[in-house]
Amino acid sequence: MKKRHSVALAGICAGAFCVTTHAQTPIINGQPATTMPAQTYYSYRSHAYVGADVGGTIPRDLNVKEFFGSVPAGTKVHLDPGFRLDFVGGYQLTDWFSVEGETGIMANKIDSITGADIHGWASVDNVPLLANVRLQLPMHKCPVTPYIGGGAGGSVSVIDFQDNIDFNGASGNGSAASLVFAYQAFGGLRWAISDNMGIGVAYHYFVTTGSDWKFDTFGTATDHMKFSGGAMHAVSVAFDYHF
Questions:
Q1: What is the DSSP letter of 140?
Q2: Domains along the chain?
Q3: How does pLDDT run across 7-61, given as a tens digit for each residue?
Q4: Hey, is 19 helix, strand or coil?
Q5: Which stretch of DSSP H or E encloses residue 21?
Q6: How far is CA 133 from the centre of its chain?
Q7: What's the rounded Cα separation, in Å, for the pair 169 and 175?
């Protein structure tokens, strides 16, 4: 919540800076310039755009619901901070409203599982498949544009054990994927560096429902591994190109 407030405060401050800067009357040769053309950084025309962002994630711990059989209550998966690489393609319908599709990858290494012995690398990754709406505040005389948005869809949740993991009398390795429901909220600031290109910073809060992965196992009570739904904070640097 504090991060969302920070994004909103940054947008307000950027807007105040732009308004203050452009409210001043330019002076040329000691005289006020009354016919100075105003520079426009934000386009009214409808157009398509593409973008990408890269940054880091801070995930929430997950609850283990099943690990090839029942597990003790309170069994948790602790995930390390990870990385985010994301791509969007969209269409700006008005000067303040856009729709877009989003995919990419968010990867987080498994640091520990309560009571388990992990050998080698293990991770939980997400490949989002989201439809977003984006609301931007058009400030036509300022290169900075604050925006917020949200989206919903799915995520391909992937668990990967490069070596064995021993837990609760069961052992397993390999990888599996599960399609889950996902949604997000986001906000940020975009800086126009030309008529077509922009860079900025973005914050995303990404949530998934629980995952159910099926493995090929032998001699276990079940062949399923189930984790609770997850959530993560992500901060990234973004780039976009408008056609």
A1: T
A2: 2-22+48-242 (2.40.160.20)
A3: 444 454 555 445 444 444 455 555 555 544 455 555 567 899 999 999 999 999 9
A4: helix
A5: helix 2-23
A6: 14
A7: 19
